Each structure stands twice: as structure tokens, then as C-alpha cells.
Amino acid sequence: MAQATNIIELKHITKIFDDNGFAAVSDFNLEVKRGEFVTFLGPSGCGKTTTLRMIAGFDIPTEGEILLNGEDITKLPPNKRPINTVFQRYALFPHMNIYENIAFGLKQKKMPKDEITRKVKKVLELVDLEGFEHRKINTLSGGQQQRVAIARALVNEPEILLLDEPLGALDLKMRKEMQLELKAMHDELGITFIYVTHDQEEALTMSDKIVVMSEGRMQQIGTPEDIYNEPVNAFVADFIGDSNIFNGIMTGKCLARFCGAQWKCVDDIAEGTHITAVVRPEDINFTEPSKGTIQGVVTSVIFKGMHYEITVESGKNEIVIQSVYSAKIGDRVGMVVDPDNIHIMIAEDHTNFIIGSITKEYSLEYNDHVLDVDLKDLIPGSSRDSSGRLLDSNGEEIDIRRTKIQISIQPQDITMTDDIEQGLVEGYISNLIYKGDHYSYVIHTDLEQDFVVDDEYLWNMDDHVGLILPIEKMKFSVKK
Ligand code: ADP
Ligand code: MG
To answer: What spacing in Å lies between the alpha carbon of 410 and ligand 1's midpoint?
Structure first.
């Protein structure tokens, strides 16, 4: 049989942990080629570790299958897979020396002693710890301990090395050094690395391919350049690198309006389409105010070594610019952007849908609250008779008791409050993206769905908030 070019394939993987029914990973599909360096990148809690644990065999998917060299290994125990994992916590035996730590697994497999010695020596050279065999673990620095953990995984000669935030516990300088060493190790060994990090810079530096994840789902997969230059949605644009993100609308052929002005762009999208525009801070240039597409006032200047990070207020928008030239707070400036550097995406529809039900008393309820709305306003052409019954245009009674009503409401029409009791719904902020003149929040609730809310004010991740949904902003339809 010809060798499969994909060493690992994940097909429609979903993982639900029994107790809550919540999907930590949803319909995840991935193909990894032999020898690739693939990185899972995303914020804490997005399902990176769970996905890695399923590849390693520590967790079994609820749905979907995992293929190794074309063969189904979905339920194969971890020790039967040619896969080893390096964790953030080193999990070394503190009372053993380096040699004993690395040799442990091989001794258990009853490998001949001279073969063990040879293999341990080889991996110690690889991680740059030759001659350290007899040092005790507790005399080593964090960086050295992580090298031992890597050596211990590599000594098994796995086909795939999984690394779960392996540098997370190291200081910045050590982390940078180890990034380069791991990359060199990958090139030298030629084996497949699947790496997990929440650090976008680390992912961009090390990977052949990046998988951006959010809330258990793959958002985008591509080379570091693809992900940086062509983010597919506002989440990816915001998560990778610094971005200015604006809501806008197409106003003509390759013309978009956002941030209070009309801009030439290179994307030919139908006039009237709602869009999200992304502009990287390094792509905005200063000019005299009269020559700028937009104007504004400098509100902060920070020296970053290679450039200045300058914040400009323009109308209600706050714009971040990287420039090799400095500016003074209070300066009035013009700003221009090359059309090539304006990245337009069709805006995602973030309409919130909830389902209310009509009680036998003809009131509309949602989440144990009665919504003060007259049912005749929900049913076009209906009226009420003197006894309060609902009638259609022919005077026939419409019995919609116990039916469901779909209610939709836009993100900008919902208000957040820290007075939880005041809200129709409560939840926790699980994501936020700055969009020039407002923030877009995702509110995680105990109900069937999460809510998207636009708000001018900055709240924090994990803030507990109540959501006020004004009835006059709701749209209703009878759910068949
Ligand atoms: P990441 O590694 O990206 O930070 P994880 O894969 O650890 O994310 O977790 C993803 C989601 O699954 C989180 O909401 C987490 O609370 C949940 N989760 C992870 N492991 C378990 C478990 N054993 N039981 C229940 N929920 C879990
Ligand atoms: Mg994790």
C-alpha cells in the first residue's frame, strides 16, 4: 500500500464532556502532512488541549474519527500510538536524575541497557544537555527541565510529537530561545510536530501551518502569512497581530465607507453589503490633515523600540498606528491607507435569535419572564374580541397557545448591566473585539445560546452581566 501523505486526519471530531452537554470541540476537521509543524492557536478554553488529548488517545471523541496513516485509531489506547506529548507542567520525577527520567519508559519496555544508554545520549545531545546525565531534576532551571521533558518524549522516537503550551512557564527570553531550538529540532528530526499555544507571535514564528480556534471550532487554517494577511473573519483579524477593525458598508465598485469616510479598496463587493474592514497599524500613513482620507488628534504615543505606537481619535473612532516617525499628543493629523492594505470581509450576521413560548393565558414568556407584548401585534392582520380572544381577518379564533415565537434582536439593541436582576438574561463575557468605535462582546449564558452584544463601553473578560433586551427592538415571528 502506498504511504498516506497525511499522517493524521481528524474527521468531524466533536467532544462533549458528559456532565454539561457543552461541546468543547465541534465538528473539527484537519489533515496534517508527514513532517509538518502545525500549531493550534486560540484563547484559553477554546478546545486546544481537548483536541490534542484526542490525538494522543487520552480522550475519546464523542463523534468523528481520527486516522493515523490512513488507519482508524479513534479508540486505540495512548501507549499503542506512535505519539508522545510534552506538557506545560514538566511532570518529571524530582527524585531521579536526568538519565533515569529519560530512561524510565525504555526500562519499562525492558530494552537492553546499552541500547538505552545510546538512545539517552543521543536525545541529550539533541536538547543540548550532553554531560548532564547525573544532575538531579531539582537543581535544573525551568528551561533545562523542559528540555528533559522534551528529551523524554523524543527518546521513544515518536512519529508525532504533541506539545501543549510547552514554553508557557518560561520567562520571555528563555521562551524565545527555546522557540528557535524547537524549530531547529523539528527540522533536524523530520518528524511531525503538533504544537499548542495561545501566543500568536509564537505561532507565527514557528509554524508551517496555523489552525486558529475559537469556542471549540476551527476559524481558519493556513500558513502564517495567510492568517496574518488574509484573516477570514473579525475574530481571526483581532486575535492575530494588532488590527483596527471597523464596521462599514460598500458604497460602490471597490469603494467602502467606514470610520466616517469613503475609502478605495481592492475588493469588488456589491454596493450596500455590510462589511468589516481590517487595517493593520503599520499600514496607516500620516499626512497633513487636509490630505488625509480622515483626520484626527493624537491621544497617546508609546516608543516600542523599532517604531512608535500612536493612538489617534477620529470622531468616535480610536485608531492605532505604527510609525517610524513620532508625533506629539494633541497633534492634528491626516491619515491615508493604500487600497491594497484595506482588507474587506463581508460582515457576519450577528442577529440574536431566542425562542419564546405562548402560555395558555396568551402571554409571551421567555426565560421565565413575561414579555409585555400584545399578541395581536405579533400576528399580522389579527385583532382581539371583547373577551380578549385573538381573531384572524375572517373573525375566526386563532389558537396559538403553547406555540413558539421566534424573537430576533440586533447586537446594538441590547444593553449590558451589572445590575443582574435588571436583565432578561444573565451571563459571562467570553469574548470581546474592539471595532473602532465600539466593542463586540460574546456573552456566554446557561440557556441554549450565547448572545452577541455591541457596546460602547469596555467591560472585562469574565464579567458577570445582565442583558436588557428592549421589547420595542424585538422582531417576532411564529415558529411553525
Ligand atoms: P484550551 O486548551 O484551549 O484552553 P481546553 O481544551 O482545555 O481548552 O477546554 C475547552 C473547554 O472544555 C473548556 O470550556 C473546558 O472547561 C472544557 N473542558 C475541558 N476538559 C474538560 C473535562 N474533563 N470535563 C468538562 N469540561 C472540560
Ligand atoms: Mg490548554
So the answer is: 30
Question: At residue 200, does pLDDT exceed 70?
Answer: yes
List pLDDT tens digits, range 261-272. Answer: 999 999 999 999
Parallel, antiparallel, or unpaired for β 332-337 and 284-287?
A: antiparallel
Contact 393, 384 (CB under 8 A): no
Residue 189 and residue 159: Cα distance in Å, rounded? Answer: 10
In this structure, the residue with its CA closest to atom 25 of ligand 1 is: 17
**d(CA 47, ligand 1 centre) in Å:** 6
Locate all alpha helices (DSSP H) within 253-347, ordered by sequence: none
CA nearest ligand 1 atom 23, residue: 17
Residue 420 is classified by DSSP as G
Q: How many CB atoms lie within 10 A of CB 215?
A: 20
- Count other Cβ atoms within 10 Å, centred on residue 387: 5
- Tell me how far apart the alpha carbons of residues 363 and 7 are, in angstroms, rounded to a whole number: 58
Compute, in angstroms, the gap from residue 50 CA to the centroid of ligand 1: 6
Q: Report the alpha-carbon distance of residue 186 to residue 299 in Å, rounded.
A: 45
The protein residue whose alpha carbon is closest to atom 27 in ligand 1 is: 17
Residues contacting residue 474 through CB under 8 Å, at least 6 positions apart: 371, 373, 407, 408, 409
183 pLDDT exceeds 70?
yes
Q: Could you give the 3-state DSSP secondary structure of residue 379?
A: coil
Instruction: Give tens-digit pLDDT for 39-82.
Output: 999 998 999 999 999 999 999 999 999 999 999 999 999 999 99
Of the listed ligands, the closest to the CA of 50 is: 1
Residues lining ligand 2 (ion), CB within 5 A?
A: 49
Nearest bound ligand to the CA of residue 54? 1
Average of per-residue pLDDT values in the chain:
91
Distance CA 297, CA 51 (A): 46
